[in-house]
Design goal:
- By secondary structure, this protein is an alpha+beta fold.
- The strands form four sheets. Strands 1, 2, 3, 6, 11, 13 and 15 form a seven-stranded antiparallel beta sheet that branches.
- A hairpin with an 8-residue loop joins β8 and β9.
Length: 274
């Protein structure tokens, strides 16, 4: 059941002098719920990041086959990606100067992975209010329609919480936005490795099975301003936020970890897949 006491409304970004995004891109985010692509990491940098993430998945064994969730406060390598100024400069144009990263996920679909990620709205399943999280999707591999790039349904971010239904067939989880096929034409979030997209937390999105011979790996990062509050104490115990820039408000935050060995720690929280 959806908790209708949460503020899941969309608040349009008011920023007439963005530093990284253009005024037109701000307008697109407001009307469509997403904006992309942006070049962040060079070929050499993303090659090194890919090597690092491949090592994390290898060390996790079978448990790392699809997702590695919420290690941003437990692994220095992921902390450093989350606090990279080039990413934060784009995020700041949408949420302002005070930036928290409260969740991350490495999401890797192997070649010929039959499982789809059903259409869904992230914030409707989170214990956060108001809904002001911006998700950054960093392409670790090239992502296109053939190897299951994430898909958005434009302009579904400002319609509030939509009804959900049980999914059919092979899927990563078993709830989906009801009647998504009536909501508009999907947009494929095609990115080359090292690029990012940004999307609003109530935008309907998902991904299809990977029918290609290529892997599709991405790193999602969830950023919000400190006005956002956690509404469930039990849920809060699994959130390890890091302060990326500015002030943290009432949030408890964690410093940069000294550890970078995933076998010496664990994930505090699991927050969903794309």
């Amino acid at each position: 059941m959806l908790d209708l006491s949460h503020d899941l409304s969309f608040q349009a970004v008011q920023n007439t002098a963005p530093k990284m995004l253009s005024v037109d891109q701000i307008a697109q985010y407001n009307t469509q719920g997403f904006v992309q692509p942006f070049d962040i990491f060079s070929t050499a940098e993303i090659t090194e990041i890919r090597r690092y993430i491949d090592g994390l998945m290898h060390d996790m064994g079978p448990d790392g086959a699809y997702g590695i969730n919420c290690y941003q406060a437990r692994l220095s390598g992921l902390y450093d990606i989350a606090t990279d100024a080039r990413i934060l400069d784009h995020v700041a144009d949408l949420i302002g100067p005070d930036i928290l990263c409260w969740a991350t996920a490495i999401l890797s679909k192997k070649p010929h992975d039959p499982k789809a990620v059903p259409w869904h709205q992230d914030a409707s399943f989170w214990s956060l209010s108001p809904a002001r999280t911006v998700t950054v999707w960093l392409a670790i591999d090239d992502a296109d329609e053939a190897n299951s790039a994430m898909r958005f349904i434009p302009a579904t971010h400002n319609q509030g919480a939509m009804e959900v239904q049980q999914t059919g067939g092979e899927a990563v989880f078993h709830k989906e936005t009801a009647n998504a096929e009536t909501l508009g034409k999907p947009f494929a979030n095609t990115l080359t490795a090292g690029q990012i997209s940004l999307h609003a937390d109530m935008l309907v999105h998902g991904s299809q099975a990977n029918t290609s011979d290529r892997r599709r790996c991405g790193f999602t990062l969830r950023y919000c301003p400190p006005e956002v509050q956690i509404t469930d104490e039990a849920w809060a115990r699994g959130v390890e936020a890091i302060l990326c820039r500015g002030q943290a408000g009432e949030w408890a935050t964690h410093p940069r970890p000294e550890n970078n060995d995933i076998t010496k720690t664990s994930s505090p929280h699991v927050v969903g897949n794309n």
